[in-house]
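Exercise 7.
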Amino acid sequence: MRDERFGSRFVYARNTFAPVPKVPMTTISRLDQAPVHAAFYSAPEISEDAMVGRSAALRDAMDRLARVAPIDTTVLLTGETGTGKELMARLLHRRSRRGRGAMVAVNLAAIPEPLVASELFGHESGAFTGATQRRIGRFELADRATLFLDEIGELSPDMQVALLRVVQDGEFQRLGASQTRRVDVRLIVATNRNLEQAIDEGRFRSDLFYRLSVFPIHLPPLRERREDIPVLAEYFLERLSPRLGRQFVGIAPDSMERLMGFSWPGNIRQLQNVIEHSAILCDDPVLTVPSRLLVEQPSVKLASRLNTALRSDERRMIEQALKEADGRVAGSAGAAARLGLPASTLESKIKRFSIDKLRYRGRS
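Solution. The predicted structure, written as C-alpha cells, is:
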C-alpha cells in the first residue's frame, strides 16, 4: 500500500520544474512528537531537529530509531561524515524516557588523547599537573540522562578498557580518587569508521564493540538515497529565506540535475553548504547552483562507488549464506562457517544490515 504522505512539495522532472500550490510539506519526518510514519508536519512546524527525506533507506533507519528510542538500550550509529549521526542521537534522546533532560555530547576526536579520561570520568584536585580543582566528568553529568560519544573509533586502547568497565558495570573512578562511583546512563555512540575492520587490525576491542553494538543503526550516504536530494535541497533553501531576507520559488532544472548527479562525499552537510553558498550568490527567485561548486574528485568518486558496491556484495553474500544454512548462523553447517567468519562477527554484520534471519528458516 502506497503512503501518500511521502510525496514532494515540488514537481521535478528532467525537463520541468514548477512549484505547485502550497500543501503540507509531507517529506518532513519528526520523531520528537509522534511515531515514525505518522510524524509529518507542514513547513512552519519543522524544527532544527528534523530528519528530511522519503527514501526507503531513511525510513528504515527511522523505523529502527522509533523502536529503540523508548528503551534504555545502547545504540551504535554508523555512517560516513555528514550523514546526520548527531541529529539521530538527539532524536533518540528526545524520544526516550530521559528526554526531558539535556543530552551530554562529547566528540572524542576533538579531545587530546591525554585529556580523554579526565573529560569522561572527571578528576580530583591535584590528580595531575594543572588539576587545580575538582572536575566533574561527562558520565557524572549524564547520570539519569543520555551520553552521546561521537567518533568512538578514535579511542585509544587504554581508554577502550576504561570505557568497557563503565559500559559493563556502570562504575568508574575519577582520576586521583579511590571512591568508585555508579551512574545510570543511556549510551549512544557513533562512528564513521568500520569497527569490524578495526577489530581485525587490532585497533578496537571486540568485547567493547559487542557491548556498544547492541542495536546498530546505519545512516546511508547521500549517494545511496538520491531521491532525497530534491527534498533536502528545497528544505535547506526554505530555511535560508529568513536569513537572507528574500524568498526563493524553486531550484533551476539544470541545477537540480547537477545536484542529483553529484557523488556528495561530504553527504548532507556538503549539500547544505552548497545550497547556502549558491543562495548567497543568486539574485533570482529561482536558485541556480554554480557548476564550480560541484566538481567531482576522481578518487573520491571511485572510492564512493567501490564502497557502495562492496556493501551491496557483502549483504548479498550474507543473505545467500543464510539461505543455504536455513537461517542458522552458528555451527559447522551455519552461515558463519560457510563465510569463514566467527559467528559473533556475522551476527554483528546481520544487525548492521538489518537482515531478518527468521525469513530464511525452512527455505533451503
